[in-house]
Amino acid sequence: MPRPRPGPSYAILLPASDDTEKGLARLAVLAYGGPLKDGDRRVAQLTRRPEQVIQTPPDSVQRRPLLGVPLRVAIDAALIALGFWLAHQLRYEIGFPEDVSRDMIVNGVFFPGDYRPFVLFTPVLGLLEALLLLVFAVRGVYRQPRWTGFLDEALLVGSSALLSFSALIVAVFYYQKLYFSRAIFLYALVIIVGLLLLWRLIWRGTVTWMRARGRWTERVLVVGAGPAGERVMSALLGQPGLGYTLAGFVDDAPVAPDWAIATQRAVIRPERLGAVHDLPETIRSAAIDEVIIALPSGAHDQLYWAIEQCRHGRVSFTLVPDLFELSLDRVSIHALNGLPLISTQDSGLRGPNAGIKRAFDLLVGGGGLLLVGLPMLLIAALIRLDSRGPALYGQRRVGRNGRHFTCYKFRSMHTGAHEDYAKLAASADYTGDRVAFKMKDDPRVTRIGKLLRRTSLDELPNLLNVLRGDMSLVGPRPHVPEEVAKYDPWHRQRLGLVPGLTCLWQVNGRSDLTFDEQVRFDLYYAESWSIWLDIKILLWTVPAVVTRRGAY
Q1: Minimum mean pLDDT among 85-89, 219-223, 424-428, 458-462: which range?
Q2: Residue 416: CB partners within 8 Å, gap ≥ 6?
Q3: Which of 38, 73, 140, 148 matches a 20 to 30 Å C-alpha distance to 489?
């Protein structure tokens, strides 16, 4: 009798190796490698056979060509040399921002000029190449995991270049007797960083384009098709940019005929390649590059046996610990004499970090309010012309530590809309869950309100709350007291944060997510906070608003 498939779980991947501490150091949260796509959200238990069923043939994937570290270093070295030469052309040949004087002889008297030929800079260029490539190697620029985002890589490259140029300038002006224009070093820094980032952006685009077509990928086999295995398969199928192709799975229990996994692009039925005891043969016959072991915690014998088979087959493997009942999505891993210890991490929003975040809110929020002041007046006028009632709407929301405050928004509904809440929540068109109210085609929304909601312009007055300290630019979206009263105990952990104008789940599906998924994103944000994460979420908000994905 095929067993039914439960709902999705959040998986923490723990890569394993012969060296326990090295394996622990490679910890990664698969569900949070970066902004996820809509299709990464749910594992569907379908009630009928899917309209489109896709099975991955074992020989349909081309291996990714190796772009080894030596070749990447050579490309970077060539771009550094090109960038420095362009900087010399800009300063000494073109004469930007002003012409450079050249050597002159007047009435037999020699007057040295400031012009320096490029050949004099070759020792400087050699030193820069050595410094920058050394810093790149030490800081791990050439060892970035595949889930590293472009913004993270850009920050690493930019900071490494700034550090290298600082050391270069000190060395040149301390030991060099000739006078060099300081502008050339500024030009070189900007041009070289631009060239390095442009090359990485082009390469990322090429890799993403090829991976989307099933090439340059690694074939992955999932061991186990329970809740953890389903979540892993859903993430692999929903994020082709990671470079994994799901070859299938092995599991002792047969799957139901109508079972499949729903993603944004298709309804996919991963192929069952056999039972768990067929793992060695499956690795060989299906040309598997990596195995993800997602067996339940009680299957100790199978787990150890699967690990040994992966080691004997010389194929890399990854473990998924059975930690899905934890309310926290981020844990820290330690080793005690080879024994892995798992503990939860406290929020990073304490002490000085809270002050840094508040200063950032005041600086960016105040500047943002000045920029959108006139557009807000125009929106207010359109609201008044469209329907009766005030343009600004204040609603009681629950903030940090359960404190109530008035949250300001542009009115997007007809006056008295709250009176129809109970009737709409019981209607067939209701798309929310037991906590948060959601309805795609809410009849209470005005004509201008539909546009404001889809573009998130109705939330611009939240900037007033940011300046008052009731809210932050980034943080969990605040709920009304009636919704907070329906929280499960673990949901209340999100109340330890200052609510925000935007948040991590708003750039990862918004209203298309379940409330539990939203809370997990909020908890991950709290435990992973940094000012750079706030900046990234604000930048990610722009395309999320433009595409209107999950907004209604």
Answers
A1: 424-428
A2: none
A3: 38
CA distance 386 to 369: 24
Rg (CA), the chain: 28
Above 50 in pLDDT, residue 368? yes
State the Cα–Cα distance between residues 141 and 162, nearest whole angstrom: 14
User: What is the C-alpha to C-alpha distance for residues 430 and 248, in angstroms, rounded to an integer?
Assistant: 36
Query: How buried is 522 (Cβ within 10 angstroms: 0-12 exposed, 13-18 middle, 19+ buried)?
Result: buried
User: Which DSSP string corresponds to 382-416?
Assistant: HHHHHSSS-SEEEEEEE-GGG-EEEEEEE--B-TT
Residue 482's H or E segment, with its range, is helix 481-484
Given this model, what pLDDT does residue 234 score? 80
CA angle 363, 368, 369 (to 5 degrees): 105
232/235 Cα distance (integer angstroms):
5
> 530 falls in which pLDDT band (50, 70, 90)?
confident
Average confidence (pLDDT) over 438-456: 82
Number of helices and strands in the chain (H, E): 15, 16
Burial (0-12, 13-18, 19+ Cβ within 10 Å), 378: exposed
Query: One-letter amino acid identity for 76?
Result: D
- CA atoms within 13 Å, Cβ hemisphere of 502: 26
CATH architecture of the domain covering 14-57+218-344: 3-Layer(aba) Sandwich (3.40)
Q: Report the distance separating Cα 494 and Cα 498, nearest Å.
A: 9
How do beta strands 316-319 and 14-15 pair?
Answer: antiparallel
Nearest to 436 by CA among 388, 497, 484: 484
User: What would the mean pLDDT of 288-302 be, rounded to a whole number?
Assistant: 87
Q: Which of 19-28, 173-182, 229-238, 368-377 has the lowest mean pLDDT?
A: 19-28
H-type helices in 341-476, by residue range? 352-386, 421-425, 447-455, 462-468
Spatial neighbors of 262 by CB under 8 A, at least 6 apart, are: 39, 42, 43, 44, 46, 50, 268
**Which one, of 551, 504, 541, lies nearest residue 33 by Cα?**
504
**pLDDT value at position 254?**
86
Q: How far apart are CA 92 and CA 248, in angstroms?
A: 60
Which residues of the chain are in CATH 3.40.50 domains? Answer: 14-57+218-344
Q: Which residue has the tokens 């139901």?
A: 256
* Lookup result for tokens 């359960």: 402
Give the model's confidence band at 71: pLDDT under 50 very low, under 70 low, under 90 confident, else very high. very high
The tokens for 154 are 């850009």
